[in-house]
Amino acid sequence: MSTPSPTERNVTSAPSRLVEFLGTMNLAITLLVTLAVASVIGTVLQQNQPYTDYLLKFGPFWFDVFSGLGLYDVYSAGWFVFILAFLVSSTSICLWRNAPKMLRDMWHFREHVQHKSLRTFQHKLEWDAMVSVQQASEVARKVLDANKYRARVSEHANHTLLASMRGSTGRLGYVFTHSAIVIILIGGLVDGNSALKFAAQYGDLKIETRDIPASQVPEESRLSREHGSFRASVTIPEGRQANLAFVRLGEGYLVQELPFIVEVEDFRVEHYVSGQPKSFESDLIISDPVSKTSERHTISVNHPAVYNGYHIYQSSFGDGGSKLTMRAWPLEGFPVEPVVVNGAVNSDVELPMTSGVMTMEISDFRLFNVNPVQEGDTSGKKFENYGPNFIFKMRDETGQAVEYENYQIPVLRDGRRFFLSGVRETVGEPFRYLHIPADHNFSINRFMKYLQNLHDRDKVTLAARTAITDVMSVSGTMNHAKQDEIVQGMSRMLTQFVEGGFNQAFSHLENTVPEDQREQVQTVYVSVLRHILGLLYRQTVLEEGGDAERELSDDEYQFFEDAVTALESLPFYGAPVFMQLESFEHVQATGLQIARAPGKAVVYLGCILLIIGVFLMFYMPHRRAWVWIEPNPENPQRTRLLIAGTSARHTFEYASEFEQMAATLKQRLSDPTDTKAD
């Protein structure tokens, strides 16, 4: 017979080495730790959110890094699924290699153990007794039985061996635990959306990225009602219904058809004093279009509805298309009367302007806006409700948009009330707020009338002439020849102030006034300009029906100061109109997560096996005990005994148990007539 070459031996043993490697405990632990770390990432980092949210949160660089690693959908990332499948293979091989041995070990009493081997055990006791071998065997059998050991007696030519064990069922703990891991991982793979990702990657599915109505989504971006597992979301306003949901996948979504109709009958939400949602729940009517039957369910967080194997969870809430009535106040020129605009959340409104058509995109409405009170507040309250507000974008014909957040009710600031309007150019930056003072009627009318007067050339010219006359009269420099020129110059300066604030009004001084005189000249111009602004403000108060002889009150003077501050910020507002919320019809929407998980039963089975397996492994340790009995060759009247034992777990506890059992056996053999076997 020829001897195999080293190459042939290596080729033959390579699969064995691979199987041995896959079945090692070190590999399984490494894979489990890796999955645990990935699961922590998936828990800390909110999964399957719109990519724009991640981009704003992490920035372009880290967004690309995390996207490349698949951290936005960890549980369906290719590397996560690969590790999962690798762990299934590793655990299955480990189970295949060791389970038969474990099962055999449950029934094998190890009756062929050697005497010298027993003497090497940590737990052992050896002594002589004045009894026969048969008596010693009977007593030992009773003691083992009393300690719940199953014993088997083996008669040999020169000795008798009692091989016993207890807790052999604990060996099943290993089988159950490893089987549970495999079953749970398979259940997780079944309920994951890895199959959808693979289908999208190979062209069987097309991920939809456009913001279009669900009815316009093409068939290649839809999932049938018979689709296996999924987890989808849908937002349904009160009084509306839906028979589909959206599965977020990568940068887009897929439409999941549902075999039933979900109607939102009512939605309720309770808030803490801080304004945070305390609880929210939805009353649903779930209808089957085939059987024409329906069921009513009330769901809340952690209390889903179950319908024909589908779980419907309460996940979020938002606006469901509240109807808003607004007034569009012009910030540039005439007319002074605002235009009434009707719109709804998640809809667009076109606004004709002198510079072209602007599109108002209404994105959200909030009924409550609770914020911490300002420092120095003596009311004793910790929070204050600013009232309703709405968020919208103003987009011009070039596609450029600015986002706004306007409050309906004037908010108290430093003892005075202001209409707040936040503005920002990008979603990632915070809102910068314009503070428009409210008049004594808590309205915006006086400010808008004042702004209108600032755009009236005749009134501006008259106010400038009055102011210049007053200044020349006080200084004694009355010059009628130059008065008209000065009036025109100050009128232009006021117009520049309205268009660009004080900086634009005084920008010409850098080229016309020496630097050493610039500050003094600017101080004079500021004084004259404020005098003109004050005259126009007084004119505004008189037009409201005020007394021309009456001096302005302290509140009216404060309003003037606040109005000038708002006017200086107004050029940076970025919109030709101010949208004031007049009234609203609030419509709420509930956010539902609908899931179908056929692998859940598999996971539950695995969890049950895991619990049983852990219990068996830790609370039913496999223990063995042997009693070797033989005649004493030096004294035939005596019998030599050796008891030895071992335990797979809890060796410290077993040491006490073994000592007690050995002591009991020794005591019983010293008085073989004692029938107790404690």
Structural commentary:
The protein is of the alpha+beta class and 678 residues long. The protein folds into 4 domains: 16-103 and 177-191, no CATH class; 110-167 and 622-670, Sirohaem synthase, central domain (Double Stranded RNA Binding Domain), CATH 3.30.160; 196-228 and 230-320 and 588-596, no CATH class; 322-586, no CATH class. Strands 14, 15, 18, 19, 20, 21 and 22 form a 7-stranded antiparallel beta sheet that branches. The chain has a 5-stranded antiparallel beta sheet with strand order 1-26-25-3-2, covered by helices on one side. Helix 6 (133-146) crosses helix 16 (651-670). The longest helix is centred in the first third of the chain and has 30 residues, at 78-107. The model is unreliable at 7-11 and 674-678 (pLDDT under 50).
Secondary structure topology:
Blueprint (H helix, E strand, L loop, with lengths): L5 H17 L2 H20 L6 H19 L8 H30 L7 H4 L4 E7 L3 H14 L3 E6 L4 E7 L4 H21 L2 H8 L20 E2 L6 E8 L3 E9 L2 E20 L5 E12 L4 E8 L4 E3 L2 E10 L3 E8 L8 E6 L2 E7 L2 E11 L3 E3 L10 E3 L3 E7 L5 E7 L3 E3 L2 E9 L7 E6 L7 H10 L2 H19 L4 H26 L3 H4 L2 H29 L10 H16 L7 E9 L2 E9 L3 H20 L3 E9 L7 E9 L3 H20 L8
Parallel strand pairs: 4-7
Antiparallel strand pairs: 1-26, 2-3, 3-25, 5-24, 6-7, 7-8, 8-9, 10-11, 11-24, 12-13, 12-23, 14-15, 15-18, 16-17, 18-19, 19-21, 20-21, 21-22, 25-26
Helix pairs in contact: 1-4, 2-4, 4-7, 6-16, 7-15, 9-13, 10-11, 10-13, 11-13
